[in-house]
C-alpha cells in the first residue's frame, strides 16, 4: 500500500492513502443505521429516512460491485425491529417489493445475485414474493452476492444451529462431545459465505445489535459517523482504506 504523510502533522491521514485494489475485503457487512435521525433532522416522517436509505443501498451495491467486493451483507430488519410502530414495520416490509422491483434490471446488468439470511417464514407474503422474484431473476448471476438480513438475529441463529446439531446427534445416538465450531458454522444461515472481513456501522453508534455475532469474531470493525442515507462511495472507500491500514492477526502475532 502507498501512503503519503500529512505535511502539517507529519502523520498519515486516511484520505491520503491510495486504495489498494489488490486488498479489497471479500465480505463487507453493514449495519445501516441512522435513517430515522436523517428524517428527523429534516422534520420528515421516519419512513422517508428508510426510503432514502434504500437509495443508499442502491448506490453502495453498485460501488461494492465495481470495487470487486464478493459479498455484501446488509442488516435490513432485525428480529427486534418488530417492536417499532406498525406503520414503520409495514413500510420496511414493503421495501423489497417497491425497491427490488425497480432495482432488478440494474442488479442483473451488474451481475449481482440477491440472497437472504434471516427467519423469512415470519415475513408477510408480499415481502416474501418480492424477495423470491429478486432471487429467481438473479440466480444465475456470478458477481457480487447482495445478502439482505431480513428478520435476522444472531443469537436465534446460533440457537437454531445448535438445535439442528442436537437433533442429528441424538438421531445417531451420539453425544455432545461431537460438537465442534465447524459444525456450528455449517448449520448457520451464513454457511455458504466466508466470515465478514469488515463490519461497518453507520451513524456513530458503536454496537453490534445481534448482527452476525458468531461470524464477526475476527472482522475489522469500523464505526462511521455518517447517517446511512448520507453514506456514499467516498465513505465506503474511506472505510476500506482504514481496513487496509490495519494489520489482521487472527489471534496470532
Ligand atoms: C436503522 O435505522 C435502519 C433500519 C432498521 C432499516 C434499514 C432498511 C433499509 C435501509 C432498507 C433495506 C432495503 C431493502 C430492499 C430490504 P434507524 O431507523 O434505527 O435509524 P435511527 O437510529 O436514526 O432511528
Automatic annotation (TrEMBL):
Binding annotation for Mg(2+): 33, 220
Domain of life from the UniProt record: Bacteria
InterPro entries on file: UPP_synth-like, UPP_synth-like_CS, UPP_synth-like_sf
Residues binding substrate: 34-38, 46, 50, 78-80, 82, 84, 201, 207-209
Molecular function via GO: ditrans,polycis-undecaprenyl-diphosphate synthase [(2E,6E)-farnesyl-diphosphate specific] activity; magnesium ion binding; manganese ion binding
Function recorded in the entry: Catalyzes the condensation of isopentenyl diphosphate (IPP) with allylic pyrophosphates generating different type of terpenoids.
Gene Ontology, cellular component aspect: cytosol
Tagged with keyword S-adenosyl-L-methionine: no
Organism: Staphylococcus shinii
Active site, UniProt feature: 33, 81
Biological process terms in GO annotation: polyprenol biosynthetic process
UniProt family annotation: Belongs to the UPP synthase family.
Protein name (record): Isoprenyl transferase
Cofactor: Mg(2+)
Summary of subunit composition and partner proteins: Homodimer.
Free-text comment on the cofactor: Binds 2 magnesium ions per subunit.
EC number: 2.5.1.-
Entry keywords, A to Z: Magnesium, Metal-binding, Transferase
Magnesium as UniProt keyword: yes
Amino acid at each position: 500500500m502507498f501512503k503519503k504523510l500529512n505535511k502539517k502533522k507529519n502523520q498519515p491521514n486516511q484520505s491520503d492513502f491510495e486504495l489498494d485494489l489488490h486488498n479489497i475485503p471479500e465480505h463487507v457487512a453493514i449495519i445501516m443505521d441512522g435513517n430515522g435521525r436523517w428524517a428527523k433532522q429534516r422534520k420528515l416522517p421516519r419512513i422517508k429516512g428508510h426510503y432514502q436509505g434504500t437509495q443508499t443501498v442502491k448506490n453502495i451495491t453498485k460501488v461494492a460491485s465495481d470495487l470487486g467486493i464478493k459479498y455484501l451483507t446488509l442488516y435490513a430488519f432485525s428480529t427486534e425491529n418488530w417492536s417499532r410502530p406498525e406503520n414503520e414495520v409495514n413500510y420496511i416490509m414493503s421495501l423489497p417489493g417497491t425497491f427490488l422491483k425497480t432495482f432488478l434490471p440494474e442488479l442483473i446488468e451488474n451481475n449481482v445475485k440477491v440472497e437472504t439470511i434471516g427467519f423469512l417464514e415470519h415475513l408477510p407474503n408480499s415481502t416474501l414474493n418480492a424477495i423470491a422474484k429478486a432471487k429467481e431473476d438473479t440466480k444465475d448471476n456470478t458477481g457480487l452476492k447482495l445478502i439482505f438480513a431480513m428478520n435476522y438475529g444472531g443469537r436465534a441463529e446460533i440457537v437454531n444451529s445448535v438445535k439442528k446439531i442436537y437433533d442429528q446427534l441424538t438421531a445417531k445416538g451420539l453425544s455432545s462431545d461431537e460438537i465442534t465450531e465447524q459444525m456450528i458454522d455449517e448449520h448457520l444461515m451464513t454457511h455458504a459465505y466466508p466470515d465478514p472481513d469488515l463490519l461497518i456501522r453507520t451513524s456513530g453508534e458503536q454496537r453490534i445489535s445481534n448482527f452476525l455475532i458468531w461470524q464477526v469474531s475476527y472482522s475489522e470493525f469500523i464505526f462511521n459517523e455518517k447517517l446511512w442515507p448520507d453514506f456514499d462511495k467516498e465513505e465506503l472507500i474511506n472505510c476500506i482504506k482504514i481496513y487496509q491500514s490495519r494489520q489482521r492477526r487472527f489471534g496470532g502475532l
